[in-house]
């Protein structure tokens, strides 16, 4: 739902299926963190938990 609002305004949406990297952030103007900390809620059925290195990258 939130992504649809951005797309309506012309944004291109992509989903990370791996842990966050500096390269990912370099390619983004906006980075939205969605709380999918359990497999049931996660894209593809597998949660990717942020680790300290991803926090440092942000």
Concise summary:
This protein has 58 residues and is mainly alpha-helical. The chain is built from three helices and no strands.
Plain-language structure description:
The chain is mainly alpha-helical. Helices cover 31% and strands 0% of the residues. The chain contains 3 helices and no strands. The two termini are 24 Å apart.
The rounded distance between the terminal residues' Cα atoms is 24 Å
What does the average pLDDT come to? 76
What would you report as the Rg, rounded to the nearest angstrom? 12 Å
Described by strand count, sense and barrel closure, the largest sheet is: none
Query: What are the secondary-structure elements, in order, as H or E?
Result: HHH
**What's the total helix number?**
3
Unreliable residue runs = none
Helix content: 25-40%
Number of domains: 1
Q: What is the approximate shape? A: flat
What structural category arises from helix and sheet content?
Answer: mainly alpha
The total strand number stands at 0
Strand proportion: under 5%
Task: Please describe the topology of this protein.
Elements: H1 2-8, H2 22-26, H3 52-57
Give the tags.
about 60 residues, single chain, 3 helices, mainly alpha
């Amino acid at each position: 739902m939130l992504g649809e609002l951005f797309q309506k305004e012309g944004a291109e949406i992509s989903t990370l299926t791996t842990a966050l990297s500096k390269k990912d952030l370099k390619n983004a103007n906006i980075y939205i963190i969605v709380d999918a900390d359990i497999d049931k809620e996660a894209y593809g059925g597998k949660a990717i938990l942020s680790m300290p290195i991803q926090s440092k990258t942000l």
